[in-house]
Each structure stands twice: as structure tokens, then as C-alpha cells.
Amino acid sequence: MQWTNLNERNVYQNPWFRVNLADVRLPDGSRLDHFVIRQRPVAAATAVNEANEVLLLWRHRFITDSWGWELAAGVVEDGEDIAAAAAREMEEETGWRPGALHPLLTVEPSNGLTDARHHLYWSEDAHWTGQPQDAFESSRREWIPLKVVPDMIARGEVPAANMAAALLMLHHLRLG
Fold it and tell me: Which of 22, 32, 53, 78 has its CA 20 to 30 A from that of 94?
């Protein structure tokens, strides 16, 4: 039951993504046109301090007109190491530089539409380097007790699926 991508052509692109139109053959032999969004990888990172608090950003997403807690994240630049990109994004968006990063998980947030892969990391320590360079990314940055994360997700305070998955995995790793 595999779909086969016979050909793709670009219909739009910018520095962040490309929209392609794919000619797809279905398992029954019929064909259809399917739009595909091609994106650069995304890297995200957070830290957990000695008090088992996780560093999060409170931000508004205009596309869905929703507020929620997230990890610092951004696109991986061409030729950039993914973990280095995660560390860079965390420092730019929070003012905290992570220590050694540990892979948390990699997810495909919408694999029926896009080839995006989000690589999420965490660190057991971080040090303050100063005010965030990209403070416009969020309304505030806070250390949140990791033990309350599942309840926050249940209340809809972490609406992004990739962020919820990462935080639940981190909760499991740290608190069991």
C-alpha cells in the first residue's frame, strides 16, 4: 500500500520552505497531484536545572491565534550541525546557553504534507549569558517545574504537538 512519487515540480519557494506539486501513483495504479512542503530541519533545545525545572518560552502563534509554552527552536542553517543550531536557538531566544546537549527525540510534525523533521534536545545545565537576542520570539521565559508538565499539556497550555511530545519524554526521563 505504498504511494510512489513519480515527479515533483517547484511552484513556490523562499528561504524557509519550498512548495512542490508531486505527481503521485496510488497503490491501485491511479495518479493524483499532491502538494508537498519541503522544509529545512528544525532544532529545539531546553535545559532542566537542579530543581527539576524546565526552561520554556510563553509565546503567541499568529497562524493559529494561540498562546502556549514551547522550547526555543528554529531552522538549521545550511551546513550547520543540528545540535549546534539547537544550542544557538536556545541562547538567542532565552539568554541561557545550554551545557552539553542530549538528543531527546526527532519528530515529523505533519508528514502527510511536509518533510519537516524537528530535532529536540535537552541539557542538564545552562548558564545565563544576558538578555535574549531574539526577545521578540516570546512574551516571557520561565523555569517551570517539570512535575507540572503533564497537567499543562492536558489543559492545552502546550498546543504544539512536537513540544508536548518532547516535554512528556523529558518528564519521563527525569521523573519516571
Answer: 78
Q: Does the predicted TM-score (pTM) go above 0.85?
A: yes
Distances (CA, A) of 116 to 14, 23, 36, 142, 157: 15, 20, 10, 27, 23
**Phi and psi angles of residue 27, each rounded to the nearest 5 degrees, phi first:** -55, -30
C-alpha cell at 146: 517539570
DSSP alpha helix (H) spans, the chain: 82-94, 149-154, 161-175
Sign, Cα dihedral of 27, 28, 29, 35: negative
pLDDT band, residue 168 (cuts 50/70/90): very high
β-partners of residue 22 are 8, 34
Total number of residues shown for the chain: 176
